[in-house]
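Comment thread on ticket #2218

A.B. wrote:
> Attaching the input chain for the structure job we discussed in standup.
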Amino acid sequence: MVTVAVDTSALMLPVEADVRLFEELERLLGDFECVAPRAVRDELAKLSDGAGEEAVAASVGADLADRCRTVEHDESYADDALVELADEFDYVVTNDGPLRGRVLDAGTPVIHIRGRNKLGISEP
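C.D. wrote:
> Ran it. Output below, let me know if you need it in another format.
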């Protein structure tokens, strides 16, 4: 089965960009296992304590993260954790441009938003 790691921005896409995240991943990949690094869950919890649209998006993202297996790691920063763990996953899902570049440089394909509310794959 294909393993897909999600970052904070990916889990916030349903609110921020009207992307049906899990439906889009299924369209692209078929069956997949979703994983979220512990730092991603921590970042979503911190952001959801705020106010405004970002807090709402983070709260929805935290709920969506419950559909993912949590991966433990040594990094405290979510982006660093995803780069550190990238070779353990078939894909990393992110809407963060700098992180996308780092993951591609690490040799792992990236799934990101393409167009208005669809996802696409970039290969290293």
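A.B. wrote:
> Thanks. Noting for the ticket: Residues 2-122 form a domain with the Rossmann fold fold (CATH 3.40.50.1010).
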